[in-house]
Amino acid sequence: MAVQKLPLAKALNESLRKALETDPKVLIMGEDVGKLGGVFRVTDGLQKDFGEDRVIDTPLAESGIVGTAIGLALRGYRPVVEIQFDGFVFPAYDQIVTQLAKMHARALGKVKMPVVIRIPYGGGIGAVEHHSESPEALFAHVAGLKVVSPSNSSDAYWMLQQAIQSDDPVIFFEPKRRYWDKSEVDTEAIPGELHKARVAREGSDLTLAAYGPMVKVCLEAAAAAQEEGKSVEVLDLRSMSPIDFDAIQRSVEKTRHLVVVHEAPVFYGSGAEVAARITERCFYHLEAPVLRVGGYHAPYPPARLEEEYLPGLDRVLDAVDRSLAY
Amino acid sequence: MTVESTAARKTTRRSSGTKRTASASTSTTKKTSTRAEAGAVEPELVQLLTPEGERVQHPDYDIDLSAEELRGLYRDMVLTRRFDAEATSLQRQGELGLWASLLGQEAAQIGSGRALRDDDYVFPTYREHGVAWVRGVDPTNLLGMFRGVNHGGWDPNSNNFHLYTIVIGSQTLHATGYAMGITKDGADSAVIAYFGDGASSQGDVNEAFTFSAVYNAPVVFFCQNNQWAISEPTEKQTRVPLYQRARGFGFPGVRVDGNDVLACLAVTRSALERARRGEGPTLVEAFTYRMGAHTTSDDPTKYRADEEREAWEAKDPILRLKAYLEREGNADEAFFEALEAESEALGKRVREGVRNMPDPDHMAIFENVYADGHALVDEERAQFAAYQASFADGEVK
Ligand SMILES: Cc1ncc(C[n+]2csc(CCOP(=O)(O)OP(=O)(O)O)c2C)c(N)n1
Predict the structure, then answer these.
(1) For A85, nearest residue in chain B (alpha carbons)
(2) Per-residue pLDDT averaged across B189-211, rounded?
């Protein structure tokens, strides 16, 4: 039963199960992860099967959760922490940025920090305030952290395994609006490297680079562009720190046009980093400036406005047109 | 008997209880016994009205209300419950994206809310619909954020009722700072901060305790211990009764029957008076129960037993006051009938209010991002407007 069609959330669940089975040092920690199985059911059934010592319902305190995970890691454990929603990671931000990220360097490499912090992120589910944000740039900016985001069930399964096996702290952003999307998972495959990008669709006229929830939107945009006779390549970056610039460069040398798409605000976002590096690397290949599509410099709006705020098919296609028009 | 002397007595009495807990938990390292002993020192709740609706006396918290005042409290609770039920069904009908019900917590909210003076300031979480009601916030305004048309919905200063706060515990620090400001101004109003038992684990709440004690801020911390933080019972947050925490920070804590509106009123009033006299913060733990789901997204059958809810239903705050009103002959059939009609009218008003609530204008995304303006926001607003206009022209590019 190596190949199965699973919703993304279930793939994560299977991945956690596998990690708990293979390594007795792996722990799951977070609010409501036990009996309830997490508010998105990603940890469903794990406490029942692995016990309260391995799947730990924590007090309602994010700084406490990450701070104690650091201590557990110092003691040889591999905590996988769940932050309930994107907007609630900030009470833990201090621990993540000032402690978790820097521990390895401060200890002259003698101490490892194999802590994974899972964060359901992004919008599109009609939620209330603080439940729809995309703070990945805030973490990618911090040296010592690795930041990744899967876009499909297979990556969800494998990237989480790899993140848990990593000796570095990994911020694992889960595209919550894709939790229920089903796709194939081969649990016996040989997975790609955690920080390598993946060509999600081949094309020759323009490259769309995205990650997490926006990969699906970009694939739809590419299909729509195809009908208009434009061949659009879609790159799933998968990792925001480090970023696989080689893969983007390869694609851009072929297509000569790049549009970066993410939900997070464009201003100081990951798209800015991609645009700057690719402009440096591909200056003579580019036929248009690197364009970015993303959120505005405004608080994530109330649910009734999120469709306008989030990059959708139209905005992506609009950028495709603008890039090709140069 | 003066309030000062009772507060002082309570503090001494309670400190011995705290000591017992401390020695008990240091004398053993087994978690099971710590839990048992923490439970063993739980003292009785401050209660003025039994679950059967019998009036009982408490030496420290006396209260004398007129029949009209009692009916007023009853009316507040009934209308609040009606409003809450309406919101729950509006969520089921797809008119609201989410709802956090206060079912079961009416006495804690109405009792504490009616203890406030107009110039006091309230810092709520996201479940304080009953407190909002007594502050005079239009109930329809509470629904905007749950419908997804705004992130607030009212001007906090028009009723001294701050916006709902979703990030757990943050508002306790705002309340403390506001209270520090009152002291600086030489005013004699007070502040009340609401939060749940789960929130007591947050650093912010503990920092609020520290600041309020150090600066002797006139703030009442009103913790509604409704027994659950989503799926986690209070034991996952603390091993000592919550009200006892206050001692360690240097101010009194008191546990009140949160389903007894009279006791909640009396205890909160006394804590507010203490704050006004310049004697600093108090932690009130209202021992109550969340009868519904955490929010409409939650499924409590995954983690809690029906019997538990049934046991608490027997302590229903509204039935209890009703029994008392009837027993004392303080309300007649006409009163209950009129209230029923008023409830229906409120339900209808809320229903229509929500259905007619307009969606926000698209440009609202860019409104109020900064008070002084920001060039990038101006630029993005203009681009957004042009982009939206391109659709209006039917020219979807
Ligand atoms: C900082 C933060 N972490 C997590 C959450 C998600 N969350 C919302 S309500 C809640 C439980 C709150 O329990 P409690 O403080 O007891 O208040 P209650 O809802 O029971 O009134 C959680 C975990 C949040 N809103 N904020």
Answers:
(1) B167
(2) 98
